[in-house]
Design goal:
heterodimer; A: two-stranded antiparallel sheet; 31% helix; B: 814 residues; 33 helices; 19 strands; 9% strand; globular
Chain lengths: 307, 814
Amino acid sequence: METVDKNTAMVTNIQGYSIHDGPGIRTVVFFKGCPLRCRWCANPENLIAQQQIGFLSKLCAACGKCFDVCPHGAIRKDSDIHRIDREKCVSCGACVDACFYGALVRYGEEMDADEIFEKVRRDKIFYDASKGGVTVSGGEPLMQPDLIGRLFTLCREEGIDTCVETCGCVSTETIDEVCGVTDHFCFDLKLMDPDAHREQTGVSNERILENARHLADAGADVLFRLPLVPGVNDSEENTEGTAGFLRGLPAEYRRLELMPFHRAGQTKYNALDMTYDCGGLEAMSAEDIERVRSSYEARDVVCTVSR
Amino acid sequence: MKQIDFSMLKQIDALKLSAANTAWKAAMQASPWSIFADRERWTVASWRETDGEDIQIRRARLLEKILDNLEIRIHPFDEIAGRPTPGVIGCATAIDVCGDYIPSIWNDDGSITATLDATAEIDKESLTILREAAKVFGGHSAQEMCYKAFAEIYGDWPRQIEAAKLKDPSLDCMITGQTTSTLSWAKILRIGLRGYIEEAQAKIDEYIQGDGTDADKMYFWRSAIIVLEATIRHAKRYAELARSMAEAASDQNERIRLLEIARVCETVPENPAHSFREALQSMQFCNLSKMLENPSQNNCHWGRADQYLYDFFLEDLKNGVPLETLASQFADLIARWGTQTFVASSSQKESHQINFGIDNIMIGGLGQDHEDQSNELSYLTLHIVALLQLSAPTVGLRWNFKTPDWMMQKAMRTNMATRGGIPLFENDEVVIKNFVRDGIPFEEAVEWNGLGCVYPCIPTRAEHYGAEGVAAFNLAALLHLTLHNGVDVNHVQTGIKTGDPGTFATFEDLYKAFLAQHKHLLYGIFRLGAIARNVQPKYYRTPLLSVLGIEASMELGQDLLIPHPDFSMYGVSDRAIVDVADSLLAIRNLVYEEKKLTWDELLEALDSDFEGERGEEIRRMCLAQPKYGNDIEEIDSLVKRISDDSASIIKAYDNAPFRNYMIAREGLAWHYYGGLGVGALPNGRKAFEALNDGALSPMRTADKNGPTAVIRSAVSTSFDEVSYASVLNQKFTSAILGSDESIGKLVAYTNAYMGAGGSHIQYNILDTAQLKDAQIHPENYSDLIVRIGGFSAYFTQLSEAIQNDVIYRSEFEL
């Protein structure tokens, strides 16, 4: 995938007190832009690298302020509430500033590594108390390796632990570039079958698996994770494949964290006028999750479920 | 360092409620709340008999009469004997203390409004007794006499500032008897009441031989002996009752239970306690006397139970008493004190939202050796309150840099189990530092405990917080005055005329006017307190509370209600600082700097409660201003400025010859009450709505940057430099404590805040019912963040189907 060679990136959220994204209390920085298009993705605002405007219809009071200020006539009245005409919208954000009700939101703020660092360092007392740190996520954070490298270097100097959440679909050079300043990787494995992987995420998994092996060979601290989506990757066949892949790695990598599917992202799909492929998919039952988990355990993979 | 038996902690984790505890709980839940007039029968009889005697002796005789005659009962599930009424949940009235304070006794519908949401049936005979007492005591209770004295000097003003909620409590909240601290439990258990009687007698003998001339001292020591002897006799009445019940009992086990009760009641509180059970029984009788001396707002404070009971606990275990038995006895008393109720005055119902007395247990904390004192009994305390699932007691964990991790882990699990912020965390380092800075020796300061909820007090000193009507001071209502040239919500000129806001050329002019209102009101309230301080003891005394409450009373021969410069402590709670800061910043930005609004526009919007389209627009502009709790320097520094200035005004007041007022920014449900005195505010809050809860909690819906930003804001205000305790409430869904790992992270979060100088934090864990409520009333929950596997969103922005998923998850994770 093409990485972006510039000093800034679009950040959608800097989230303190994150407790499921690496050791300790962490601050997660969400970047926009991703090489994958996973059908179940919970963060659709992080797919494209450009700023976007979201519209939360539930909060709209139909006051009409946004309609008045939009310089491009991109907001139209649809019966009682408003709609963004995505063809016309250039994401200038005039409507967001005008809205008193918080119904219009800006996804993405351009920031450089120093600006991000200024924000994340403020939680140092929590990192110190919990052996936590900073996690970059997205989207795919490694689409801006230079920025991540600089951010993590700053963190290291301040004694802040660093973690990358990656889909692995980047060049091996990119991985190498950040590896030296990264304490932990959370590395997602989606599907073992390359065709199915392409069908479900838009890309093949060859490069991803290659990078996974590469990181393991380099001895990096990697936690492999699997977003467990019913009907997509909860089959015995995929479990066998994934477990087999992990068993092919050194012993310390034979563990997997399952992240059960939830459809909480639906709100954001609606806000962006996007269709959520998995919007109708029910969350998995505790029993089904346990079935998959124990199936991994039976195949010599230490398997946990994230909450 | 304490040697902790970790295998015992595991045993404690496995404990369930005992059969006796479960039977009590079932009986408690099944029994209607009843009001018992029996106590008042004896107050009236005694008062008539003692007419003409000294007030100190009269009050002692009154308690003696009650203790000797009150109807007593032992319930089938009682392991510890003694209740203030024969009922499982029974209220006694306090007409002899409070006067004619229960309006509903004059209705003929046969029921009395007892507390916030409890109405009790009452029979005709009882009603007659209460009415008789109201006639005897009404019109000259200590509170009523204070109000008469207030009116002599200040006219209607004292009542008007209460009506405008500028201050709380009103004297009719009956906090007179709170001039207490925790009873001297360690000494009571060590020497028994006989020991106290001997001390008092020795004082009398010594005084007579030394040709003393102050008769008041003699009266005090005499009154002490009267009430202590009566307390011992009261216990022996239970012993007698238990023996006679044993004779009549056919079941052998029942006979053994009753004979054991008889043996224990025969022994304590007269003598030193020799077992855990005797210690608890002794405490119950002393506390019973304290409650019967003044049943109103007379809370059962444990203080540091894990310390003074620890040796009894270990000794019993060593002697082979099973842990289950000790836990069951402990739970019995915790439950009994936690459900102690009383007939509250109407003003108290409104201000304190009271259903039960507020009692407090403190656990852990530093000791004389500068080490943390957490032990197995602290751990057991947490386990028991989780099993009992009651709204009381308040459990305070004294956090310090040496608090062990196993205590913190158990504390978080207990929070998860109780959902109600039990335990709360208070910072030893901050409280002790403040006391020592204010001249209290470390040896005394280190024994502090929470009074009711969070307010720190020292058991060796007489705490007057609230007792003279000085406690909560409403800064938001002051801002309302400032915006209306000194006129309050009831359209009364209770403040001074600081000018129409339109005449303030700069923001600083407005700020000066606010401080002028502050000083005028506060000093007026302090002067009222000084009047009450002199008037109250003429009409009311508390011999039992004095002699068992602080040792200085015995030494000086002086009732607690008569203040003494060396031992009396005074406090005030300046509240709603965040509301004021958010509001002032909105004015500074919108009116003075950005000039988006004129004063006229803003005031019109406020006075119309943001009515109409323009009103709502102005409210949205106000809401959109930077708010405290998001780590924004501009607003956080204003919070600090108001905090510092308010503290300076308080500290500059000369309270001679007594100690200056200390500051503790606590408050339970006060924000509802305080809000009733405040019109619409420029922070976007509508008229009469609740204010922000606690002292450092952000405005509801305003903390957009997550829980660590709240902490950063709170730390930056340096409240710990001026206030002994400052309440911060944090709200989470149960998912935040969903695993061992996440419990550890909340421990780390707490440690980080406390380590940085936070003085108090409390967690509300939202349950399914509350999440469902959030679906119905999203306006109250718009700050509620839901986190699911890397995804986070505001709960109220989610669609209903997804909200239901979240609710399902919160159930699933329990």
